[in-house]
Specification:
Blueprint lengths: L11 H18 L9 H13 L6 H35 L12 H14 L4 H22 L7 H28 L5 H9 L8 H20 L11 H6 L4 H23 L5 H13 L3 H25 L7 H20 L5
Helix pairs in contact: 1-12, 3-8, 3-10, 3-11, 3-12, 4-5, 4-6, 4-7, 4-10, 5-6, 5-8, 5-10, 8-10, 11-12, 11-13
């Protein structure tokens, strides 16, 4: 019988720290950019908004609350969502290399966005088509591999189906790029696929944030049950948990979160792979502590990466480039230090 060694819950200090750290990071990041805004000005501007008086210039208020705040909120949501999805999938498939795109959702969402750009849709339309095709990709993956979905062998079949469906939608993305106008549509599609948060606004957040928040809340409520995912069906059944229903809920939540993230900021890699591993090394493999830590540190990681992307040069660097440049060497370093991981 397979045993899963679990560590305990988070201490009170870590609970407070994981709540405060994203808030502090966001507060510092909102003042960093091509226009530097000091913490004192940020506090003064916030006080002015509360009292409905003008305490700083109109330009400072616009930069803080209409340009940077939506980006920071989007970065935090996407980082938290992708990290939670990656953490859940790594346990679901008992595979340390599982990512939020394991079932092809990112490829499907990318095709939907590329198709929306080709059709000349607005930002809301692009976001909606991306979300719909991301969900469609996972539905096709599930149908293709659902023969023995409740068994361990069936989960491996679903992973293989995800690779197949992901390749199919990647080919469709290439087809859209091939037919796109090289002067206007193709550059827009290429730039979007590289990942960027520069189009963040409160309207797009109102559409994309609910699936991420709902997915995180559901997984947080079920986090103790996520410890059962690597077990065999018989072991999980002995604990009184409907393992098939649990797997379905995890896949649905991870799909919603990943598709929504991709629909708002394009493909952003490494977050769902790197952050859960860092948290697992520090907090252990008990999801009572692992999942909250992944959500918190994923949000912090994305806020930092996006701040670097929009501040390091006069031209904004696509987020996926920075996550790969930072993530790949760091992941190799962690792997060499730990000697590999087990779930």
């Amino acid at each position: 019988m397979k045993r899963v060694r679990l560590q305990g819950r988070l201490s009170t200090g870590w609970c407070v720290g994981l709540i405060v750290l994203p808030v502090v990071t966001a507060f510092l990041a909102i003042g960093i950019g091509r226009i530097w805004i000091s913490p004192g000005e940020i506090v003064s501007s916030l006080r002015g908004l509360i009292r409905e008086i003008e305490t700083v210039s109109a330009q400072t208020n616009m930069v803080l609350w209409k340009i940077r705040l939506p980006r920071i909120l989007l970065a935090a949501l996407c980082g938290a969502g992708l990290s939670a999805a990656g953490c859940s999938y790594q346990s679901l498939f008992a595979n340390p290399l599982a990512t939020p795109d394991t079932l092809g959702v990112a490829s499907g969402a990318s095709f939907g966005a590329a198709l929306g750009i080709l059709m000349g849709l607005g930002l809301g339309g692009i976001q909606l088509t991306s979300l719909l095709f991301g969900i469609t990709a996972v539905a096709l993956t599930w149908l293709a591999g659902a023969g023995k979905a409740g068994s361990g062998k069936g989960m491996n079949t679903i992973v293989l189906s995800g690779i197949m469906i992901g390749s199919l939608f990647s080919a469709l993305v290439s087809l859209v790029k091939f037919t796109a106008d090289t002067e206007s549509e193709l550059p827009a599609i290429t730039y979007w696929l590289m990942g960027s948060l520069d189009s963040a606004n409160f309207k797009s957040l109102s559409l994309g944030a609910p699936p991420i928040l709902i997915g995180i809340v559901v997984l947080m409520l079920l986090r103790w049950r996520l410890n059962l995912l690597p077990l065999s069906d018989d072991e999980a059944r002995a604990s009184g948990v409907n393992i098939r229903a649990l797997r379905g809920v995890v896949i649905l939540c991870a799909t919603m979160m990943t598709a929504s993230c991709v629909s708002m900021c394009g493909q952003v890699g490494w977050v769902g792979l790197l952050v859960p591993h860092i948290c697992r090394m520090k907090f252990g493999n008990n999801h009572l502590s692992l999942l909250p830590a992944s959500v918190s540190l994923g949000a912090v990681f994305m806020i930092l990466v996006d701040t670097l992307a929009r501040s390091v040069s006069s031209v904004e660097i696509p987020v996926s480039i920075l996550t790969a440049i930072i993530g790949a060497p760091f992941f190799i370093l962690l792997m060499r230090k730990s000697g590999g991981w087990s779930l």
